Structure formats: C-alpha cells, structure tokens
Amino acid sequence: MFDNLQDRLNTVFKKFKGQGRLDENNIQEGLREVRLALLEADVNFKVVKEFISRVKDRCLGQDVLKSLTPGQQVVKIVHEEMIGLLGGETADLELRGNPAVIMMVGLQGSGKTTTSSKLALHLRRLKFKPLLVPADVYRPAAIEQLTTLGKQLDVPVFASSTDMNPVDIASQAREYAREQGCNVMLLDTAGRLHIDETLMDELAAIKAEVSPQEILFVADAMTGQDAVTVAASFDERLDVSGVVLTKMDGDARGGAALSIKHVTGKPIKFVGMGEKASDLEVFHPDRAASRILG
Ligand code: GDP
C-alpha cells in the first residue's frame, strides 16, 4: 500500500530538497510530477487538481521562495495538505445510547462481516460490552460466518435466522442487548454486488427503526475509485458517519484512501490490515501522510 506513490514522491522531494534556490519554474515542474504520481495512484482527478492548486498557491508565497530552505518548505506544505486530504484530525466513534448502535453497510465482499468482528474486539478492549448482530438474511452463510467469528472471540451474537425481517432483527436485537447488558451493538447488514434500490430501501428502514449513532461504510481499498463512487451513493441515501477501508494490507495504490474524505466529506475511521480479528487500526491522517511521504 502506498509503496509506489511513496517512491515517486521521494524522488520528487529529493530534487526539491537538493536545490538551494527555488523559482516558480522549479516549483511548477516538481508539482507536475507530484500530480502525475497522485493520478497514477488512482486518486480522483478533481481531488488531485484542487490539491495541486492549493499546494502551488502556498508554495509560490514569497516566504517560501525567500526562505533559506525552500525545498524543505515545499515538502512541509505537501505534507500538511496531504494530512488535510486524508481527513485532518483522527475521527473517533460517537457512541451514546443504551445500546449504542453501529450499522455496517457496503457491497458484498467489501469486508463488513470481518470488520464487524474486528470492531467487536476493538470495542471490548475499550471496555465496551458488544453484541454482534447478523442482519444479512439473504446469505445463510453470512449469519453462520458472524456467529463463528463471535464464538472465536467470545463475543455474544444475536440468534438471527433467515426467515426474519432485517428490520425486526435490528429492533429485537436492541431489546436483547438491553436484557444482556450489552452497551453497543454491531449490526452487520446485507450487501449486494452492485448498489440496488431494494437494498438501499432496506438499509434506510433499518436506520429509521434503530437510529444508529454510527453508520460505517465499509469499502475494499483495492477497488480504488469504484469504492469512492459507491461510498458517495451510500452516503447520499444513508448519511453515513464514517468509512472503514479494508484490505489496506494488499497492494491497493492508495487512490481510495486519498480521495474518499474529499469526495464524500466523511472521515476514514478505521483501516483493515489483514484477515485476522486483530488486524484493525484506528486511522490517523497524520501518520498515514507521514507514511506516504516517507
Ligand atoms: P462482506 O461480504 O462484506 O461481509 O465481506 P467479508 O467480511 O466476508 O470479507 C470478504 C473477504 O475479504 C474475506 O475473505 C475476508 O477475510 C477478506 N477481508 C476482509 N477484510 C480484510 C482486510 O483488511 N485484509 C485482507 N487481506 N482481507 C480482508
């Protein structure tokens, strides 16, 4: 992840830093290479355009050109703008209510079920008492998968069955969570291979029933700009509260991570770094920017 982008940007930055003086031409030329590197990493072209324009405006400010270390100033500006692109501050979960409800949404195969169990483990480490709730009644294997994951982690799983309606599952599970003293419930909803209206209607009905504090859109980082487009559709319909980017341990180029906040306005809250329950990390924009910039 980010390896190619990191290599490309390092080359550009070395050139910048190696120059004692910078003029408008050097800066334009260097930023052209930054632009190409971002486009090759599959970052949304509008995002790239605005990013480069912001960086250029700041770099051409008199202070940078006149400073003793203009190259380092340019690198610092790119770093700061990159943090902004990745979301600025670390975005925490907002968990209130008894129980707090977290609804996981996204396409089939994006990693919803795996991420639900990873989040249960994460929340338990933070001293919450989670309940896992399978609400994908269309794939019997999905209920089984979450039940097995819950058993492995020793986290209670609501006993959903395929003949139940997902809205009823959500409301009955909430009652069950209260009875069992679970203060947060993770609702693993159904996905489809493509966005479809029936799915969106169902998700909207679940949202209306249990008013989740968090609706996390789970996206496979390997799908690049498709993940961003799908995120925008889910957000338009459901007003999601954040994004989880999965499969960041793979060789995704980074385009989804660098575009999704800017396009949807919603922060990346977690990243999936593998298939195991412990492979979930809170997303820190400043650390991610430092990794990209080497
Ligand atoms: P769902 O259909 O959205 O519930 O997706 P699943 O949770 O079943 O995940 C689909 C596949 O992606 C499974 O094989 C998971 O093990 C895998 N997966 C999920 N998250 C990650 C991740 O962060 N890294 C890797 N390498 N694989 C993941």
UniProtKB/TrEMBL annotation:
Q: Where in the cell is it found?
A: Cytoplasm
What is any one of the record's Gene Ontology cellular component terms? signal recognition particle
Taking every annotated instance into account, which residue ranges of this chain make up the domain SRP54-type proteins GTP-binding?
267-280
Quick check: keyword Repeat in the entry?
no
Q: Which GO terms describe its molecular function?
A: 7S RNA binding; GTP binding; GTPase activity
Catalytic activities:
GTP + H2O = GDP + phosphate + H(+)
Q: What is its EC number?
A: 3.6.5.4
What are the protein's UniProt keywords? Cytoplasm, GTP-binding, Hydrolase, Nucleotide-binding, Ribonucleoprotein, RNA-binding, Signal recognition particle
First-level EC class: hydrolase
- Residues given in the record as GTP binding sites: 106-113, 188-192, 246-249
Predominant place of localization? cytoplasm
What does the sequence similarity comment in the record state about its family?
Belongs to the GTP-binding SRP family. SRP54 subfamily.
Notes on the domains:
Composed of three domains: the N-terminal N domain, which is responsible for interactions with the ribosome, the central G domain, which binds GTP, and the C-terminal M domain, which binds the RNA and the signal sequence of the RNC.
Instruction: Summarize the protein's role.
Output: Involved in targeting and insertion of nascent membrane proteins into the cytoplasmic membrane. Binds to the hydrophobic signal sequence of the ribosome-nascent chain (RNC) as it emerges from the ribosomes. The SRP-RNC complex is then targeted to the cytoplasmic membrane where it interacts with the SRP receptor FtsY.
Subunit-level organization = Part of the signal recognition particle protein translocation system, which is composed of SRP and FtsY.
This chain's protein is named Signal recognition particle protein
Report which part of the complete sequence is shown.
1 to 294 of 500
